[in-house]
Amino acid sequence: MAPFLALVTVTLACRLLGALGVGYVQTWPDSLAVGLAAMFLLTSSAHFLQPRRDGLIAIVPPRLPRPDLIITATGILEIAGAVGLLIPAATMPGIRTAAAVCLAALLVAMFPANVRAASGERHPAAPRTPLVPRTLLQILFIASAVIVAVAP
């Protein structure tokens, strides 16, 4: 729930700033990009900080090797993507779009771990959101990334 709240709160705060004349966040997609960046920075912290890190390692599907490295790599990718979302299109064309597309793909790739977390095979520090709400949140996050990616 915290990632959802971060996305919504930061997006709305940025949109308010945009309405007050802050050029960086004058459009909904610009504000949404900052909200997504905040969300991914928040979620990436769990990839490195205990006890959440161990919880994430525990939900990596067992057929994948080195779940510890996978969690580290996905955390780094989330941080890199968040930084990419913060680069305005006017400054470096294509970076924000590429970051949004890559983050959407990362969310899809990580979904099997979410299914495993919801299946009852849990570490005490693993995410505890049931599958239906977790799926709906993933769809919202992916849709947000797509909006940012296709925005002019």
UniProtKB/TrEMBL annotation:
<dbReference type="Pfam" id="PF13564">
    <property type="entry name" value="DoxX_2"/>
</dbReference>
<keyword id="KW-0472">Membrane</keyword>
<keyword id="KW-0812">Transmembrane</keyword>
<feature type="transmembrane region" description="Helical">
    <location>
        <begin position="97"/>
        <end position="119"/>
    </location>
</feature>
<dbReference type="GO" id="GO:0016020">
    <property type="term" value="C:membrane"/>
</dbReference>
<keyword id="KW-1133">Transmembrane helix</keyword>
<dbReference type="InterPro" id="IPR032808">
    <property type="entry name" value="DoxX"/>
</dbReference>
<protein>
    <recommendedName>
        <fullName>DoxX-like family protein</fullName>
    </recommendedName>
</protein>
<feature type="transmembrane region" description="Helical">
    <location>
        <begin position="31"/>
        <end position="49"/>
    </location>
</feature>
<feature type="transmembrane region" description="Helical">
    <location>
        <begin position="69"/>
        <end position="91"/>
    </location>
</feature>
<feature type="transmembrane region" description="Helical">
    <location>
        <begin position="131"/>
        <end position="151"/>
    </location>
</feature>
